[in-house]
Amino acid sequence: MRNHLKKYLLITFGSLFIILGIIGVILPILPTTPFLISALACFSKSSPRFHQLLLNNRWFGTTLQQWEDSRTIEHSSKVKAMILITLTFAISIAILQERLHLQLGLLTLAVYITCFYLASQRRQ
User: Is pLDDT above 60 for 123?
Assistant: First the structure.
């Protein structure tokens, strides 16, 4: 009984992480890759079928396979993520004309995310 409960909880959390990862594709403040890596970890302990579906996915399967093999993410993927984050924030800030407080909030968040990213680059 306990194993079944653990399995279903891990599948539920894995599914939730996939949903959050998909939302993260649209919203730059939610990081897609960590959510998908978390889903991969949940499925590796609960559902070999879902685990393989993630690893074989045509959009992010290669990145997840690399993570599973070496616990690394390609530099080019990181650069693409930073470009996407920068463009999304720039467009969002431009759309919010004459709402200085919202623009400053987005700019602050963008700077925070960039600093976090750059700090994580130095640790590798």
Answer: no
What is the gyration radius of the CA atoms in the chain, in angstroms? 17
Residue with tokens 């993520």, as numbered in its chain: 81
Q: How far apart are the first and last CA of the chain?
A: 42
Reduced to 3 states (helix: H, G, I; strand: E, B; else coil), residue 46 is coil
Q: Is the pLDDT confidence value at 121 over 70?
A: no
Q: Up-side HSE of residue 57: CA atoms within 13 Å toward CB?
A: 17
Tokens describing residue 80: 């693409």
pTM: 0.69
Q: Where do the domains of the chain lie?
A: 1-71, 74-124
CA distance 36 to 15: 10
Q: Is 58 helix (H, G, I), strand (E, B) or coil?
A: coil
pLDDT tens by residue, 12-68:
999 999 998 898 888 766 778 888 999 999 999 999 999 999 999 998 899 899 989
User: Could you tell me if residue 17 is left (phi over 0), alpha (psi between -120 and 50 degrees) or otherwise beta?
Assistant: alpha
